[in-house]
Amino acid sequence: MALTLGACCVHGDTVKLKDGTVLEGSITAENDTALSIYIERSGGTITQTREISKADIADIVRWTAEQKAKWQMQRDYDTLQRYQLNPSTSYAVEYYDQIIDGVFRKFLTQHPDSSHAAGVTARIVEWKAERDLVAAGNIKFHGRWAPAAEAVGEIEHERGQQLVQQARSLISQGNFEGAIQQLQPVVHMDAQPELVSQAKSLLASAYERAITLLDQQQQQLGTDVSSTQQRVDQAHQTLTQAEASLKQSMNSRQPLGVTEHDPASYQAIGSGSQSAYQAQIAVNKARSDLSAVLSHLDYAKSQLDMVTLKLTALRSQAASVSPAPAAALTAKSQPAPSAPANSPDVLVGLLTWTKKNWIGMTMVLLAIVFLITRFVKD
After folding, report:
1. Contact, 148 vs 158, CB < 8 A?
2. Which pLDDT tens digit goes with each residue over 24-81?
C-alpha cells in the first residue's frame, strides 16, 4: 500500500524503536507496514527524513493538536530570540520594519494567547523607539547616539584607519596589489585629509614596488618566450630531418616481389624495415617534442600578455593618484631630446664655425655677386 501523506510541517510525534532508539519529529507519511518521520536537529540546521518499518517500532506517541500547537509556539519564540538590538551600532530603517512586522507582530498574530505575548510586545516598543531615532537622522556608533552627519565622519575615519593598517600589513608581507586595493578607497575620503595623505604616500610606494615586480616578471617571461621560440624552431628542424630520414628509409626498402631463394634479398628487406621502423619512432618523438614545446610557448605568451596588461593598468592607476611618481615609473630609458634651434649652444656653434670658415664663405659670396652682375648686364 502506498504511503499516505500527512501534514509535512507538524512536529511532536515520538517513535520508539525496539532497539531503544527514540525519534522525535513529525510523522509525514504512513501505511500498514512503514512510516516516515521528519527529524530536525541543531535548531533546524540539520534535517532528516527516515522511513521505518513498523516491525521495528515498539511504540508511537502522537501528540494532540493542542500539544503540537504549544510546541510550535515555543519553537517560534525560540526563533524570535535570535533578533536582538545591537548595543554598539544601529541598523537601517528597513531592517527595523522587517523585524518588527515580519517577526514580532507575526508571532503575536499566530500565537495571540502565548505566555510570551507581553514580552514580545515590549520588544516591539524597544525596536520601534530605536527605529524612530534612525528615521530622524541619528546613528548609534560605539554605543553612542549622534546625528548622522557627525557619526558618518567618525565611521569613515575609523574605517580609513583600518584600511591603512591593513595596507601596511600587506606591504610588509609583499602583497603590494592587495595593499593597493585597501588604499584606493581611502584616497577618496576628502573629509579625512590626514588619512588621505598617509594613503597616498603608501599607495605611491605600493605602486612603485608592484610595478618593479611586474617589470621583472615581464622581462623573465619575455626571455622565456624568446628561448622557447628557439626551441620551437629547433623542434621544427628536428621534425623535418626525421621526416626526411623516414622518407629515405621507405624509399630504400627492397620491394616485396624479390626472389624467394635469394638470402641477400631477405636480409635487405629486414634491414630496410628496421631502418624505416627506427625512422618512424624518431618522427613520432619529434612530433611529440614539438607539441610539448608549442604548448609551453602558448602558455608563456599568455602569461606575458596577462602581466603586460596588469602592468599597463597599474601604471595608469598610479598616474591618476600621484602623477609625479607615476611619470618616473612609466618613463623608460629614452634618448635626450635634441636642443631647439634657438638654444644658446646652437648659436655658439654657428659662430665658431663661421670664424673657422670665413675665407671660404667670402669667396662664395664674391662669386655670387659676380654672377648676379653678369646676369643684370645681359
Report:
1. no
2. 888 889 999 999 998 887 666 678 899 999 999 999 998 888 888 888 899 899 999 9
Q: For 157-173, how does the pLDDT look when each residue is reduced to its tens digit (9 = 90+)? A: 999 999 999 999 999 99
How far apart (Å, rounded) are the C-alpha atoms in residues 245 and 282?
9
- For the stretch 65-118, pLDDT in tens is 888 888 889 989 999 999 999 999 999 999 999 999 999 999 999 999 999 999
186, exposed or middle or buried, with CB in 10 Å at 0-12, 13-18, 19+?
A: buried
Contact residues for 27 (Cβ-Cβ < 8 A; gap 6+): 6, 13, 15, 35, 36, 37, 38, 60, 62
Query: Hey, what's the cell of 340?
Result: 631647439
Helix (H), strand (E) at residue 230:
helix 193-252
CA–CA dist 12, 61 (Å, integer): 9
pLDDT higher than threshold 80 for residue 321: no
Query: Which residue is associated with the grid cell 521505518?
Result: 52
Helices 323-330 and 263-321: angle between axes, nearest 10 degrees = 160
Please work out, in degrees rounded to the nearest 5, the angle formed at the alpha carbon of residue 148 by the alpha carbons of 144 and 151.
50
Angle, alpha carbons 167-144-142 (nearest 5°): 30
Could you please state the CATH topology (level 3) that the domain comprising 4-63 is classified under.
SH3 type barrels. (2.30.30)
Kindly report the pTM of this predicted structure: 0.48
Q: How far are the Cα atoms of 75, 80, 108, 292, 355 from residue 116, in angstroms, in the given order?
A: 12, 11, 9, 73, 112
Instruction: For the beta carbon of residue 143, count every other beta carbon within 10 angstroms.
Output: 9
Q: Which residues pair with 17 in a beta bridge?
A: 57
Distance separating alpha carbons of residues 11 and 27, to the nearest angstrom: 8
Is residue 364 within 8 Å of 353, Cβ to Cβ?
no
The CA–CA distances, whole Å, from 193 to 25, 40, 275 equal 61, 55, 81
Whole-number Å distance between alpha carbons of 147 and 149: 6
Cell of 249: 628509409
Backbone region of residue 26 per phi and psi (left: phi > 0; alpha: psi in -120 to 50; beta: other values): beta
